[in-house]
Amino acid sequence: MPKPRRSRAVRPPARAAALPRHGGLAVPWITGWFDGRPYFGVNFPLRRIQCIKYRLCQFCREPLGRRIGLIVRPADIAVGYVDEPAMHPECHDYAVAVCPMLNGSLDHYRAAPPAAVAGLIAVQASRAGKPAEAYEAWYITPSGYEIAYGPDGAVLGIRLDVPVLMKRPVRAAARPRLTDEHAALLRQVLALESSLEGPATS
Ligand SMILES: [Zn+2]
Questions:
Q1: How far is the CA of 48 from the centre of ligand 1 (A)?
Q2: What is the pLDDT of residues 98-130, one digit of tens each?
Q3: Beta bridge pairs of residue 39
Q4: Which of 2, 74, 171, 196 is most buried as measured by Cβ atoms within 10 A of its Cβ?
Q5: What is the pTM of this model?
Q6: pLDDT, tens digit, 9 for 90 and up, residues 82-93
Q7: How far apart are CA 171 and CA 105, in angstroms?
Q8: Domain locations in the chain?
């Protein structure tokens, strides 16, 4: 029986050697696990804060180096910070190559994870089921690494109003899919039309 075909095998960076694997992919250190399986794109809140505060790579957990990669969406630019921690350039490249949201093979965020997992991770709940946004890769330096704090002193993320070495597009935004609300409305309209045109049913 033929094995399911995997898209081009991309090797994780050497510094990620100790990371657990799932489905052939290296699981980022920040990724949340529940019931023995990882939820890619769902982050452990505490690890997110640790990464941002101590300048660790969210992927391999090692200290960041001279070039620091960020994944930036328009919504992040609007608020002035990115809530996802940074990555080494090579960890960043691997994530961009294999993550279906980043490489464009998925055009919608996964539906919300099980409630037990969702309880762990409030940050991404608002993205669940929504069309993928446009992503950019930004590279900054250690001197441009600044933490964004909320009025209560909470760590919000990494500031984006800093000198940026390079920006490049990672993926375009996906076209919005018909929402449930719109689909229901459409069905009502169609039902109304058919009841007007078709033979009366009782
Ligand atoms: Zn790394």
A1: 14
A2: 877 777 666 665 655 555 555 555 445 456 566
A3: 32
A4: 171
A5: 0.74
A6: 999 999 999 999
A7: 10
A8: 14-197
